[in-house]
Amino acid sequence: AGLGSPRVLRGSLTAPSPQDWEQRQEEDTLLIERILLLVRNVLHVPPDPTEEQGVDGDASVHDRVLWALHITGMDDLLKFLASAQAEQQWALHVLEIISLMFRDQSPEELAALGQGQAAAEHGEDTRELETLRQRELAERRARALQRPSRHSRFGGSYVLQGLKAIGDRDVVFHKGLHNLKSYSHDLGKETRRVPRRRQAA
């Protein structure tokens, strides 16, 4: 089954469908019905293994017809006809076509196929996430090893004996020892701004 025939059928089927069902001519309605019946009859042909003589795993004629219908977008058009409120008169034809599409498949196989795909995709996603997580942990460890244990601005805390703070306690100095020469009790306090008129001459 080439792609030419389904393309022609799909083109003929989409030509009258945008029209409202009340404005549709009798010829358009007959054309749609004939096309749906033709698709149904093509899919209704029983498989003949002696005629096909295919290799194991090779696609059967039925599968190739379904692939041609999918490539040309005929399956999307059938879904539209099945779900459109104004096209309910074709529902039984579309239902019969869909049942013939799945003629060789059992529901158990179809359900298992979907679950197998989902499980495979889920397993692949899990593996990718685990790989990304391991890479991020390795980068975090490498950054932790490169950074020094203490940053250079930390000078420690020192107790200045002999210099009293409030309450007869020794002064605790939080700056580096090289800043000790410039120590005063006003260190860290905001300087009070004196207005210009009160400044000393």
UniProtKB/TrEMBL annotation:
GO terms for molecular function: DNA binding. Residues 19-159 form the Timeless N-terminal domain. It comes from the Eukaryota. Keywords: Cell cycle, Nucleus. GO terms for cellular component: replication fork protection complex. Its main location: nucleus. Residues 1-24 are annotated as: Disordered. GO terms for biological process: DNA repair; DNA replication checkpoint signaling; replication fork arrest. It holds the Pfam family TIMELESS. It is found in: Nucleus. InterPro entries: Timeless, Timeless_N. This is TIM protein. It comes from Pelecanoides urinatrix. The gene is Timeless_1.
